[in-house]
Structures are given as structure tokens and as C-alpha cells.
Amino acid sequence: MSNKVFDGEFFKNLENISLKARMTINNGAAGGRRSKAKGSSVEFSDFREYTPGDDFRRIDWNAYGRFEKLFLKLFMEEREAYINIFLDCSKSMIAGDGSKAMMAQRLSAVFTYMALNNLDRVCINTMTSKGITPSSSFMGKGTFQQALSFIENANFNGSTNLWDSIKKKQLKSRAVSIVISDFFTEGSIEGLIKYLAFNKQQIVFIQVLTKDEISPEIDGQVRLVDSETKEEINITITPKMMKAYEVKLKALTNGMKEQLKRYGGSFVQVSSEEELQKVIFEKLSKEGII
């Protein structure tokens, strides 16, 4: 991770941002997210033991005096959300200069940080040709470094079928599923969206592409090499072919947008060359994701 991006000032800005969950969350342990469960935000519900990184203002000092342990006061209307982050680790994500993978990892870290800061529970899932590898369940800001280590150690290799991979994951009902990928994948994206919706997920798709993938500037005779299969093809790039590519990419992104909108989901396309702060504070905010 770049120290210039994840410096103290950057995380200070993230302190006031939390991942918005548009569904009503009525189950789960107590946490930092508001729900429409019986009671109000000022009605005391329970205690839980303090975890490093928790808001010290919630510490019950009377309980500390009795038990010599730190406990947080929790309230009836506050419930944790369960958030799954699905990180595409196919080789296409490191094609070129590897900037797509870096952006995807950074976004995974940002979502994780915001969720943990909001007392939500997070699981990070890396996906490769071998299937899906889930992390342990993280909760509390004190676990962020463990989550960061899991993200940093992701191995980008082979191809990924997003639908087949995510179907192997047991999903908690009324949770949040964030998929970060270029979506150049085998399998049905529409089927994946329907599967997540059937499992009552709040769905967020983040498509990460390079500048050259969004607006390629090539012409003439070229040799194209598939980054995942290593298959090669010699072709002559013409304006007509570039137009066809533009139409195909637009159809892919518009198709995902329409399908996600049908199920109340969100879609954001980002360039791997964009500043992370712009992606977070402009694009994600504009779509109501944060």
C-alpha cells in the first residue's frame, strides 16, 4: 500500500464516513448502524467488551470500576451490518502495470476501514481460478491491520468466474456484498446479480479499468495477448473495430447498471489512474454508497 495514500490525514478524513446500508437491519449483534428495531438510540440495550480502536467515549467507567475491564455501552437501535468484500484476483487485474489490482486492493482497504470504524463486521473474499478464499471475520478497528495484511497478500493469477466463485460463499441475509473487479469474467453477470438479490444483499459493483481499456488509443497491425490464457492473435485495428469495442464495453457497463438498478444495487466505474480520494469522495459519494 502506498504511504502517500494511506497516511494519517487520509484516515482522519475517513473517520466521518460510514458505509450506507439502505436496507433495514434488524438482526445481528449490537453495533454502530441504525436500524428500525424496537427502541430508540438512547435506550440502553447491552454491554460488550472494549476492542482497541473503539470509540472511548462509549466506555462505561462505572463498569470498569466494578470489573476492572473496559466495556462499551450499546443501545437498542444500533445493529452491526455484515459486509462481504469480493476481490477479483484474476490475472487480468495485473495486466499492464498492475494498477487495476492496486486500485482494487486500496478500495477493499477503504471499505474495510469504514466498515470497521462503524462497528460493522467484515469478511474479505479473494477470487481466482481456484475458487474463493475468505478471510476471517473482522470487527473493531483493532483488526484493521490484520485485514490489510490479508488484502496485501492477495495472489493475482489465472482466470475468475465471479458467479461460480461467489455461489460457493454462504451469505448472511440482509447483508452488503461489494464486488470489485474489471468484470471481464466467464459466467453470467446477470445470474450473479440475481443470486445476490435472492440472498437479500445490498449489492455494490465497482468496475476497475485502466485508461487504455476505457479509451484505447491503438491502430494498425498489433498482436493481442490474453493476460489470463496467454492466447495470441494478430489483428489490424481499424476505426470500425475501435467503435465496435466502444459499443461492446458500453453495453457491458450499461447492462450491469440496469440490472443492479432493478434490484436496488449500485454501480461505479473507476479508472485505475484516478486519485483514490476522488473516487471515494466524489464517485462513491455521488452514487450514495458512502
UniProtKB/TrEMBL annotation:
InterPro entries for this protein: DUF58 (IPR002881), vWFA_dom_sf (IPR036465)
Domain of life: Bacteria
Domain (DUF58): residue spans on this chain: 46-247
SUPFAM superfamilies, A to Z: vWA-like
Pfam families attached to this UniProt entry: DUF58
Coiled coil regions, renumbered to chain: none
This protein's name: DUF58 domain-containing protein
